[in-house]
Structures are given as structure tokens and as C-alpha cells.
């Protein structure tokens, strides 16, 4: 084999190897090189082109110093909103919910409460449990239905999810937000009956969510670090302007049922 041919084949092999290494090892984690703001210990890395950021938390984050979370003078892109876990199924109330939502509101953050949906439990009981435990104040974000647990029956699941959404919307007078992944959305919740609900999409390790659906919020990582929270935290961005986000906010306070 001529020496020139040997070097050409070697060069082609190395180019293919380098391309494969980038495609499978670097590209999926390119989000790690996004602009990061905050202290060296706690940082929020924001995808390019987004300026309105927020977090979502539950008891898994432990005690949260909300005054530190809401500090605006140390970040180029301060956190503006927080989705806080309230309930799960028909019997579980997050032990940190009331403290988290009161403290987050007092710190000046827009708050939204979310419910983790259990397909094997009655949708009516789940909606009833949520509205008996969650009060909304004027300025809050709409309630959120977190749907990520696979059901046994797709048809029944779609019926139950829509039932929860409609019951909660009727009580609070505001259309709830659907939280899910793009893959789960396509598998179980595609269709016109769900398209009118604001979408909060979860998609990690990408520059932009690969979703055909229009979305409002994007949870782009579950490994964020935020001042005031010791544990890793989900970080989100809002797609749109501040006035667009403001248009989603609750206009009047609605107490929990029976309170």
C-alpha cells in the first residue's frame, strides 16, 4: 500500500473516530458549557437565549433559605418563580409545602403549587385532595399537574388526567399547567383536548427541547445548584417575556376548600 494511501485511510479513520466521540460523548452534555452565574459553590447555568428562570422543589430539597434563593444582586439572571410540590395521589401532602410556599412568597418569588398524579388512584379523589390543601393567592402561577408515571390503560389515563384538570380549573378559575416529558406527552397526552393547557416540558442534556408542542416552561436540568438550597435542584426557564409570564398569573385569591 502506498504511504500516501495509508495516511489518507488513517486520517479518515481518525476523523470518523473524533466525530463519533463528539456526537456521543460531548454533544449530549454540551449544556454544561452554558453561561453560569452565581457563586463558585452554587451556580445556575442558563441555556442560551433565556432570561426568566425559576426552580421547582419538594421536601427532597430539605430546608430552604428562600431569602437567599431570591437574592437578585448577585446574579445576572435572578430566579423569578418557584413551583413547589403540594400533593401526591389522594393522601400525601408534602411536609414542607406550607413553609416553602409562604417563605417563597414572602421572598418575592412567583409561586405555583404542583400535584404528582398517580394513575392507579381516582382522579376525582386526587383533585379533591389538592383543592382541600392548596390556597392560591393573587399573583401566583396556576396549579400544575405532574404526569410522568406510566398508566396501565392509555384511554383511562387520558380521561382521568382531563378530569383532574377540569375539576381544578373549575375550582380555581384558572387553567392548570401540564408538566411532563416530551416522550410521555407524545405517548399518552397528545391530542386537541390537551393542547389548550400551558405546557411545562422536561428535557435534559439538549440545547433546546425537541418537542413539536408549544411549551411555556422548560425544565432543562435536575442537577442545578442554587444559593440557599443544599441539595441539587431542578432549574427551569420560561419561554417568553416578563409580560407574557405575568399574563399567566392568578388574578384573585382562592382559598383551599373548607378554609
Question: Strands, helices and their partners?
Answer:
Elements: H1 3-26, E1 36-38, E2 43-45, E3 53-57, H2 66-69, E4 79-88, E5 92-93, H3 97-106, E6 110-116, H4 123-133, E7 144-146, H5 154-172, E8 177-181, H6 182-188, H7 192-195, E9 199-202, E10 217-224, E11 233-238, H8 242-246
Parallel strand pairs: 3-4, 4-6, 6-7, 7-8, 8-9, 9-10
Antiparallel strand pairs: 1-2, 3-11, 4-5, 10-11
Helix pairs in contact: 4-5
Summed over residues and divided by their number, the pLDDT gives a mean of 87
Q: What amount of the residues lies in strands?
A: 15-25%
Helix % is 25-40%
**Radius of gyration of CA atoms, rounded to a whole number:** 21 Å
Placed side by side, the strands forming the largest sheet appear as: 3-4-6-7-8-9-10-11
Stretches with pLDDT under 50, minimum 5 residues: 28-33
Main sheet?
8 strands, mixed, barrel
Q: Looking at the structure, what is the overall shape? A: globular
Topology as H/E string?
HEEEHEEHEHEHEHHEEEH
Helix and strand content put the structural class at alpha/beta
Number of helices: 8
Question: How many β-strand runs?
Answer: 11
Task: Describe it.
The structure is a single chain. The chain has helices spanning 3-26, 66-69, 97-106, 123-133, 154-172, 182-188, 192-195, 242-246; strands spanning 36-38, 43-45, 53-57, 79-88, 92-93, 110-116, 144-146, 177-181, 199-202, 217-224, 233-238. It has 259 residues and is an alpha/beta fold. The strands form 2 sheets. The protein has an 8-stranded mixed beta barrel with strand order 3-4-6-7-8-9-10-11, surrounded by 4 helices. Strands 1-2 form a two-stranded antiparallel sheet. A hairpin with a 3-residue loop joins strand 4 and strand 5 (92-93). The longest helix has 24 residues, at 3-26.
